[in-house]
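HUMAN: Would you supply a protein with fold tokens?

ASSISTANT:
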Amino acid sequence: MATFDELQPRSVWQIFGELARVPRGSGNEKAVMAMLKTWATGRGLVWREDGVGNLLVEIPASPGLEHASPVLVQGHVDMVCEKDAATKHDFAKDPIRVQVDGDWVKADGTTLGADNGIGVSMGLALAVEAGVRHGPVEILLTVDEERGLTGAAGIEAGFFRSRRMINLDSEEDAAIFMGCAGGRDSILTLSLRAGKAPQSMVGRKLAIKGIKVGPKEIKGLRGGHSGLDINTGRGNANKLLARALDHVAGQMPLRVAQIGGGLLRNAIPREAEARVLVPAAKARVFKQLVDEFLERVKAEELQDADPDLNWQIGSSKVEKAWTESDTRRLLSLLVAIPSGVLGMSRALPDLVESSSNLGVVRTEGNEVVMVCCSRSSVMSHLDDLAGVHRALASLACAEIEQPAGYPGWQPNPASPLLHIVVDQYARLFGARPELKAVHAGLECGLLLRSYPDLDIVSFGPNIVGAHSPDERVQVSSVAKVWTLFKAVVEDLAR
């Protein structure tokens, strides 16, 4: 196993190592921003901050290239905070435990933060890497991308002067991205009536969760990014739990006392659990029905995408539970909420056009909150998805909140910057890259809303398992993209 200090390009990995030592979950970026300001000041770089906390670091042009048009390099500093159930880690204060395994860098039981720490590190490395000739460069480091792109949404007019932008928040090194989906969240809250547990019923707990099979190996649902991985067919723990309970409720009395799963709206949930009341005389039947249902789903739906689905059923002390009728109302709503791929693009092959993810379910007293993250590259369909959630809330007598979403980034095949990047890629690697749009929310669309004349491309190294503890980034791919990045900024200075 190689050491972190041996990785190349060294300047990029050194900065990434510094980022990994500072907590930077979405909404908790204060410490990492302080570190970045200190880093910039220590190298004589000018920086400024806007009203929502975004940071702009200016890298002066190489001698003789001061009059070149400036280039904006953009990435976000926050990361998704997910961990395996057996991992002890406090994202508010603990550093990420980074591991190097051959050609891959990963974390020990948590998300790594390569999304988008590697992009941030590449941009800042221009300030310390000798031998790269470039014009004026502005590094835009945004906050709170993962929770809803609020940093990019709040960008101030005139905060930067560049009109050409390289976004380093993509995750395939053989592709150049030229568009992205828009997104909108729906937060449903269902109020339920509770009553004491009758003596004729007993408590049971059903948990969909990973199980430890080795010192550091967990077998269970894979989870993943609710945009980039939504087309894989991986199991959504919240949906599987609701379907299993709904299956049981159709055949025997059932009352739910508590239900919850998932931590983030934009991550496919890996774990979920519920505590329920079932007739004491049918406790064994409850287990039999659940086992039969989930075994069938595992064999027929998840055989290839998520073959390690696991669940556990055990006794649980339940003193109160929601009424049987309200339980059916809750389960019907959870089953009806759309989740997964809802349509494929007719414009670009293999691109998911629309999807939704039931990312979070949590119990708050006698209320259940459900958080859904919807995406589409067709804005009218995104509006329709929001309408579907409103209709379901109305039918179930639930409250619903739908914060303002974010726009997509429409592809521009005539982009001068795109042609430069494609030409440099072909020159360096002897093949033309794929031109793609991504079914995820990049900040490009929001920045275009404030700067409509901005010319944008996005590229980045191979990252797999983003938004899950399986996240890892390929070392050789980072080196490849760094080579492309340097060549592009040098070309743009001519």
The longest helix spans residues 283-300. The longest strand covers residues 352-364. The chain has a mean pLDDT of 95.
